[in-house]
Design a protein that fits this description.
single chain; about 260 residues; alpha+beta; 6-stranded mixed β-sheet; about 30% helix; disordered N terminus
């Protein structure tokens, strides 16, 4: 029980046997590495679970390790177990097909359609904030485990005071004007009736792609197109769908 409480506090299981099965799967898959000792900077707290002697140590900076019967489980490996049990999606859980030019085109078109869709929900008096969150969740890699220290990079067009965004609340504030920052008026609820784009160039390398070029936004209220220049970076999620990990957008330089 102490093993369950301290080592696997956030895991959800239906049967006790599933708990042990998961640990053995972790061991047999090579996720657990043998190590004669566990280097610590603090005294370990000793826990007991059946015949398992667990020494858990929380290191400065928040990294955690646990030694089970002289076997080392790192926090990264615990994350792998979470992934296997239906938590976060790994960025590359299995061999994936290289991203193609056509897929990048489709992803760009889908992003444009999504922004227009948010505007239509707004015009019809619907829940445009929810529509924005769905768009962000569908297009950006928030459901992918990007690895320690990595995050989605977003430089919006109409942002100055908070020019760089990285979390869902900041994204939602920008697209829907959700009020997190005063400068956010809701880019997607302008709204726009049409968005067209051109791909100046694409870098394709295995399961990563970067596209660059201009896109033009037509206000739903009428008026001239607004030209903006973009860079999108894509990876695949576990289902093979392209997700954005880099989005830089800015207006052209005016001498």
């Amino acid at each position: 029980r102490r093993l369950e409480r301290h080592l696997l506090p956030s895991f959800k299981f239906t049967k006790s046997s599933d708990k042990m099965k998961s640990i053995f799967v972790l061991m047999m898959s090579g996720a657990v590495a043998f190590q004669p000792s566990v280097p610590t900077r603090t005294s370990p707290t000793r826990l007991y679970a059946g015949d398992f002697d667990v020494a858990a140590t929380i290191l400065a900076g928040g990294a955690a390790v646990a030694s089970v019967a002289n076997m080392l489980i790192t926090s990264d490996k615990i994350n792998e177990l979470k992934l296997a049990l239906g938590g976060l999606e790994p960025a590359a859980a299995k061999k994936v097909e290289p991203i193609t030019y056509a897929e990048v085109q489709d992803a760009l078109r889908s992003w444009c359609d999504g922004v227009i869709g948010i505007g239509k929900v707004y015009q019809n008096g619907g829940d445009f904030k929810r529509a924005s969150i769905e768009h962000i969740d569908n297009k950006y890699a928030f459901n992918v485990d990007l690895g320690k220290g990595n995050k989605i990079l977003f430089k919006p067009t109409l942002a100055s005071q908070y020019a760089f965004r990285s979390n869902l609340d900041e994204f939602t504030s920008y697209f829907a004007g959700a009020g997190m920052y005063d400068e956010d008026k809701g880019f997607a609820i302008k709204p726009w009736s049409k968005i067209r784009f051109d791909m100046h160039g694409v870098f394709l390398k295995d399961d990563m792609a970067i596209a660059m070029g201009p896109y033009w936004f037509t206000p739903a209220a009428g008026g001239d197109e607004v030209k903006v220049e973009y860079t999108f970076g894509y990876i695949r999620d576990r289902d093979g769908k392209l997700k954005i990990v880099l989005h830089h957008s800015s207006v052209p330089f005016t001498p």
